[in-house]
Amino acid sequence: MAGQHLNNIVIYTPYFYKGELLMFAMVRAHWIDVGGSSTGFGAGATVPDPWLEGLQLDQLKIYREGELDETLYRVLKDNIRFPESSLGDLKSQMAACRLAERRMDELFNKYGKETMLAAISQIFDETEQKCRNVVTKLPDGVYEAAAQIDDDGVDKGIPVPIHVKVTVAGSAMTIDLSGCSKERRAGINSRTYAAARVAYKALTGPLEPVNEGSFRACEVIIPEGNIMMARWPAPMASWSAIVPTVVDCVVRALAPAMPDRAPAGHHGLLGGTVVFFGVDPKTNRRFVIQSIEGGGWGGRPYEDGESGTVSVCQGDVRNGPIESIELKCPVLIEKRELRTDSAGAGKFRGGFGLDVQVRNLVEGRWNFDNTRRTQCPPWGLHGGRDAEYSDYLLKLPGQNDFETAFGTRRPVPPQTEVIVRTGGGGGWGDPFERDPEKVRADVLEDLVSVEAARDEYGVVLDSKRAIDASATKALRQKLRAGARA
Predict the structure, then answer these.
(1) Which of 138, 212, 238, 307 has CA 20 to 30 A from 341's CA?
(2) Which of 206, 220, 292, 237 is nearest to 408 (CA)?
(3) What is the DSSP letter of 303?
(4) What confidence tens digit (pLDDT) does each residue in 88-134 have?
């Protein structure tokens, strides 16, 4: 109910000090299921309305005057497929809020109300000034960039445009997302300033703790009815699918103004999600696999991009350990490996995406719901090359080849194989300026093929994979001349 999909549940409690309401403790967690079609990472882009997505839980009190609301608790338990998981999250969130209250009591009792509130105000002011100090160093002006995703999952083949305009004036920055698509019938809408604020924070104070002062000098413009400011009851089940690309687009717009800080594009999607669920015939219990598989990040002005890392919108989320998945669920993880040649070439190449191949041992349902960017792959900067994009591949029993898969809750028989394929990161800088020894090292690790070393980097390796220095120099001169022509 907070401008995102219903699986993201916020538990909050008021904090009173000596009878005065001062603040709230809040914890958001992704529940694995909230009824409806929500199992796994959400109901998918094709869900037509919020009611089919799951339970509508809008400002409900789970505790009243210190007593658990047993009726509401029972409603939650009876309408969620995995109550032991989701209600375990609920209890953990409540415990975290109570811990926050105790910690605040300790601080307020030790330092007093006036000192505490003054300290908070000071932290906000100092954070604001640190961000302004970064923006002040940028040339004043208007910076723009555009991107797109292939379609929204409902209106096939119709691209979803993204356009950002960033205005720098002194120490202030305005991020205007008015040029993004209007809200869609598909569930890729959101209602949040997150994309603009995440980009601003990443560029001005990436290592600083976040607080409200982080955004005082950043104005965000998003008109009502925009895909990033959709109006209820627009479906939002896949709300975060577009957000990482919008974040990247803001960074891309500002790349000319801060060439020493802005990276090339990362895989820019939620990431490859492994979601398979059903009923285990041996135990007659429901199961669900849920894992986010990372992709490649863009090359930077000083180093290669990271590989196999979740998108900018997943923070420190980790993938599911293979051993844990196979112990808990009737599947076999046949491989989890870095994708050869998935990174964009550059002086500093991008990071590599992943191929995660899973065989389900029982019948069940797969979610293949990930927005695609085949027409707008992760971009390179300053001469760097674009990276490979993500995909889902499916091979049913008896088939010889994998085929691209779409859709949510897709039923499959036992012994079906799936490859969750994530994109790479774009390259930064001229690939012909990359140290040939670094190219050779990637070839020896099977991260870059011999053919890509030659065609993308102009590095020639002999039969023993040693560098042919004279042939490399000649080829790079030829490729540069061809690029200029």
Answers:
(1) 238
(2) 237
(3) S
(4) 999 999 999 999 999 999 999 999 999 999 999 999 999 999 999 99
Evaluate whether 268 touches 12 at the Cβ level (below 8 Å).
Answer: no
Measure the CA angle with vertex 437, ends 380 and 297; round to 5°: 30
Can you say whether the dihedral through the CA atoms of 204, 197, 369, 290 is positive or negative? positive
**For strand 218-221 and strand 172-176, is the pairing parallel, antiparallel, or unpaired?**
parallel
Q: What is the pLDDT of residues 123-138, one digit of tens each?
A: 999 999 999 999 999 9
* DSSP letters for 383-440: TPPP----EEEEE-TT-SS-EE--EEEEEE-TTEEEEEE------BS-GGGS-HHHHH
Q: Which residues of 297-333 are buried (b: 16+ CB within 10 A; e: fewer)?
A: bbbbbeebbbbbbbbbbeeeeebbebeebbeebbbeb
* CA–CA separation, 208 and 378 (whole Å): 27
In the block, residue with structure tokens 């047993």: 70
Q: Where are the domains of the chain?
A: 8-111, 134-257, 263-432, 443-484
- Which residues does residue 144 pair with via DSSP β-bridges, in sequence order? 165
Residue from 394, 453, 460, 459 nearest 421 by CA: 394
Q: To the nearest 10°, the Cα dihedral for 239, 243, 245, 247?
A: 180
Q: Find the helix or strand (DSSP H, E) in which 472 lies.
A: helix 469-484
CB 418 within 8 A of CB 331: no
- At 408, the pLDDT band (50, 70, 90 cuts) reads confident
Q: Which of 225, 39, 213 is nearest to 130 (CA)?
A: 213
d(CA 429, CA 383): 5
Rounded Cα distance, 268 and 309, in Å: 11
Instruction: Name the β-bridge partners of 173.
Output: 168, 218
First-residue to last-residue Cα distance in the chain: 55
